[in-house]
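Table S2 (continued). Query chain:
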Amino acid sequence: MNAGVAATEAVAPSGPILEARDLALSFGETPALRGAGVEIAAGELLAIMGPSGSGKSTLLHCLAGILVPDSGEVRYRGRRVDTMREAERSELRRRRFGFVFQFGQLVPELTAEENVALPLLLNGVGRAEALGKARGWFDRLDLPGLERRRSGELSGGQAQRVALARGLVAEPDVVFADEPTGSLDSLAGEHVMELLIGAARDNGTTVVLVTHEPRIAAYADREIVVRDGRIAVPIGVPIGVAR
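Corresponding output:
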């Protein structure tokens, strides 16, 4: 394992599991973040809200090490993420982070169980073991009998639950969910959220959720609102305060 990632596993200081300070990032001449900052406790479910174009997804991508800010700091368990090499950030994302996106982004050539197993396979887990762990999620997420179907044979809600299982199968420390219910109707969206929250609580997983829907944000422990690239409104229980 890369020494940079190994260090994050060996050291677990007190304080937030994720922290961003004074993040600034522009796409060409367009500023996306203008000094945004947030602290997220281990096991917390945080909702990031804001209108379209506010910078909420950009903030999530910086926290996850997908994007590197122009200035400011991102820390995971006390270690700088923004100064890691791309290979280190990639390994961190594979081993410690899980992802659920709006449209699932399943690999159409793979079966549902192969899609769920993909993070484990990428981490070097043997195929039989990876598929065995993947299959365990199908009953848990109300998907019995769908293991061998491909994405084109699944409903939108079923496909998003498969994507949810893929984000959780490797037991990540943090799951980043970017509009995970945005392509679903209200009933399917609430079902996905209940499953996500339940699985996260069971595993002690931190969840960082981007949404523009108040009914989805209501599932979280705390909300922050991003406007014009800044944290405009912190809502809910401050970090470190028992819920």
